[in-house]
Design goal:
Number of domains: 1
Number of helices: 2
Helix content: 10-25%
Largest sheet: 5 strands, antiparallel
Oligomer: single chain
Radius of gyration: 18 Å
Strand order of the largest sheet: 2-1-12-11-10
Length: about 180
Amino acid sequence: MPTRHVLAVALLALFATSAHAQNKCAATGVMAGESFAANNCVVAFFPKQNSVTLWFSETPITPREQEAFQASAYVESTKAGKDRTMLLLEFCPGGGQVAASADAIKTIDLSLNHGKAPVVDEQWSLDAPADFKVESIAGDVRPGARLNGRITGARKSEGKPFAWDLAFDVALPAKAAGAGASCGK
């Protein structure tokens, strides 16, 4: 095989590997009656508790923001003085264990902010099955492992409807975050 063909095959394989490893997320629903769609995401991993925090954002996430979030599991709800539409999902996919399990997810912390409705800035600790449902979850909670799932839910706050459908397929980072959910370990 000519050298240029070998090089082309190698580049295609590299592209396929990096494309496969990309995070895929979709968060849709309503916040205080205002619809939202956030298809950008980053995940932070807190190995001391086997917990993860997912940041869903309506706007693209910069590499600098990604790095900062993966180190801290925290992000500001404003950027350049403007509110942004985003959600933070903090949870224990395996209830503190390495293997993800829908039955092990008893609580989640959910923070929501809507950029078009700045009065929407909610933070809740939610209980299953009253406030949310784990439609699916698979993977391991360890550095570099893939985690995928779907969590749905709804509730009212101050008489206004909130609903969310959060789907994700992410690779957990190798670097540990400095904080995360407590999983009872």
